[in-house]
Amino acid sequence: MKSNSQKTSDDYLTPNEVEAAQVSGLPLAALSDAGNVARALLARGPRVVILTLGAQGAFAGTLDGMMHVPAFSVTVVDTTAAGDAFNGALAVTLAEGRPLAGAVRFANAAAGLACTQRGAQNSLPIRTQVDAFLANASA
Fold first, then answer.
1. Model pTM?
2. Residue of 10, 33, 84, 131 marked active site
């Protein structure tokens, strides 16, 4: 996958597992299904598809290729705001010009951190928290 081929003006689709399966009409029961689902969704028009896969991380697909970005290991308390944290962090890092792989890794970290707190707004991490988490992460 070409790491710099994405631009912030590209169309991004970021469904979770259930949404991706519903829209694509294909099963997404395992990570091995992600490539087929991503290709089916890319065929519908977006230039970048990122499937959020919970504890398995995220799977990104473009016409240039596919990649899996693993999740970070966290103690999950509440997943309420994980998708919002992921999408917000992804948007910020893409707007900063970060390559797709790095943007998805940052978004995975933000989503993981959001899962460690109860509630929605209360659980959304700030940039310094995500940066500190990544500095200490082994994934």
1. 0.90
2. 84
